[in-house]
């Protein structure tokens, strides 16, 4: 698991999983299907990507396919880092 993957999994587990939810996040946890990402949590995730990882996600990338799980988010981040 890459450092970015680990940081993202940790952020989601610590900040997006609500108290009382019995969800253990890993890189393949379905974020949309599980209900972990709603509009507010997505905004928090985008803020984390911008502030902590230094990656701004343009509006064109705000597609559900890019936020299915940590693996797809990391792929998008890596793509944006090379642009």
TrEMBL record:
Residues 2-81 form the Carrier domain. It holds the Pfam family PP-binding. SUPFAM superfamilies: ACP-like. This is Phosphopantetheine-binding protein. It comes from Actinomadura luzonensis.
């Amino acid at each position: 698991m890459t450092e970015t993957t680990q940081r993202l999994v940790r952020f989601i587990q610590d900040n997006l999983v609500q108290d009382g939810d019995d969800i253990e996040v890993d890189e393949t946890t379905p974020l949309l299907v599980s209900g972990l990402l709603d509009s507010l949590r997505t905004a928090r995730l985008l803020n984390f990507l911008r502030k902590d990882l230094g990656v701004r996600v343009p509006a064109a990338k705000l597609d559900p396919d890019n936020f299915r799980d940590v693996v797809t988010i990391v792929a998008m981040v890596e793509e944006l880092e090379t642009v």
